[in-house]
Amino acid sequence: MSTYDAIIIGGGHNGLILGNYLAKAGVKTLILERRIEIGGGLSTEEITIPGFLHNLHSHFHDTINIMPCYKDLELEKFNARYFRPPVAAGIALRNGQAITMHADIEKTIASIARVSKKDAAAYREMAENYGDFMQSVVIPALFTQPQPPAAQATVLQATPEGLDFLRMGKLSPRDVVDEYFENEHVKALILHQLPIPRGIVPDSPGLGTVIPLTVSQVEHSQLCIGGSHVMAHALWRAFFANGGMAIGYHHVNKIIIENGEAKGVETLNGKKFYASKLVASAVDLKQTFLELVGEENLDEAFVKKIKNFKLDDFSLFGVHMALNEPLKHTSAKFNPDIDLAFKLNIGLETPEDYDILWHEIRRGQVPQQIGMFCSVPTIYDPIQAPPGKHTALIWQPVPYHLRDGGAEKWDQIKNEYADYLIGKWRGYAPNLDKKNILSVAILTPLDIVRKLYNMKDGGVFMGRMIQGQLEYFRPLPELSQFKTSIQNLYLCGSCCHPGGGFIGAPGFIAANVMADELGFNKWWES
């Protein structure tokens, strides 16, 4: 077939989510994916030793419990299974101490109290004050079309919590933790929840509201059993079960536009597919307009705005290891739960460490300040390694473009830098040694771009998470409602509200917009 009701460009999670909603509504839907594998960042591969599974681009899934699509699409019927680790996060310290965050908030408060009773009380107070507010106001806003700033303010200023939330929206995350907490290590652990999986840098002005969101724990950090790609497979199976069609190895290089209306797409090999109702792009903003639509079909002022859209200001250097045994941290003598932390902070022990790291990143330097996001997922999911064995992950924020040698320099220095990071983690976990490490695989920022074309500059969030590119301003005010100036051309990717990471909101919101505009059956509301 070459004619469909709807064509979706890109088979990442947002494209798959949108495709499912449309297909189940009776819309004849086609997804075209550049790679042979569907799922985009939901990638799990045996890149070290056969039998050892590694989540390459998406690992910490913090929004499964609030994602409408997980229940709407009945993804558990298609083998998607999640586990919420009881120890969600932790910070191991050079002084031998450790602080942990738990699924049980009382245990989190008890861990904080060991280093600061004042901060334990402040944590409890913030969680209690904002839990209901986050659940009833903020979470629903993540899954609906963003409203103009004035409309948001009118709703929020009606309650004391909302008014203080507006005030935090004038501060940076760093400002908020400095105001509410006293212990530098407690602050560092809370700030560690922002860059991954939320893409937010602690010094970003106007994003202080993510601190009560993190503390309230309305989002549950979870692990996909069998690896993140199991979720991609579940979305894929559900899509086919609902009557959709997906074709891999088809790189769309042009959106067919006639008389200001999107009519279909053309692939690199010259094949054309036509859409009678809509074309939706799940790929990045610049690719969508500058490459697929083409500047010749756009207003000059609009093209300038697209070119000025800011990409992520950091990428990730990934180190994936196959291990003989789980890691044993020196600080476990102080707090045994640190060895069980799903997401582990190694190196960012104070807010000042974040300042140093991002100063190096913004200067295009290879960071010497470690700020690692580490995990040993096989503690909670032994399926991801052979019996008795384990895997380990390091994600270190780094720049994509290096001042000395550009992005290509990563090919030359990756082995040396991986050794540097492993050595630093070994300083906290002495058994991360040659006897324990069976194999190492490295994924540099340049490797990310080579594999996932839409992650420009190695940016996994598809656009910088700053105040001027969030909510009603994401990606631009004129695109914030998921519609474009080209009739029947829509957006549904992570460049849209609420942003990157595995949250699935752009695909869900786009489905609602299309249903309202084109009269599709909103089966998910019945």
Describe the fold and architecture.
This protein has 526 residues and is an alpha/beta fold. 34% of the residues lie in helices and 18% in strands. It has 17 helices and 18 strands. Strands 1, 2, 9, 10, 11, 12 and 18 form a 7-stranded mixed sheet that branches. It has a 7-stranded mixed sheet with strand order 7-6-14-15-16-13-17, with helices on both faces. A two-stranded antiparallel ribbon has the order 3-4. Strand 3 and strand 4 form a beta hairpin. Helix 1 runs parallel beside helix 11, helix 1 runs parallel beside helix 17 and helix 3 runs antiparallel to helix 4. It is globular, with a radius of gyration of 22 Å. The model has no long low-confidence stretch (mean pLDDT 96).
Write the layout of secondary structure elements.
Elements: E1 3-9, H1 13-24, E2 29-32, E3 44-45, E4 54-55, H2 68-72, E5 82-83, E6 87-92, E7 98-102, H3 105-113, H4 117-142, H5 149-156, H6 160-168, H7 173-180, H8 184-191, H9 195-198, H10 210-216, E8 223-224, H11 229-241, E9 245-247, E10 252-258, E11 261-267, E12 272-281, H12 285-294, H13 300-308, E13 315-323, E14 343-346, H14 351-362, E15 372-375, E16 390-398, H15 409-426, E17 437-443, H16 445-451, E18 489-491, H17 505-518
Helix pairs in contact: 1-11, 1-17, 3-4, 4-10
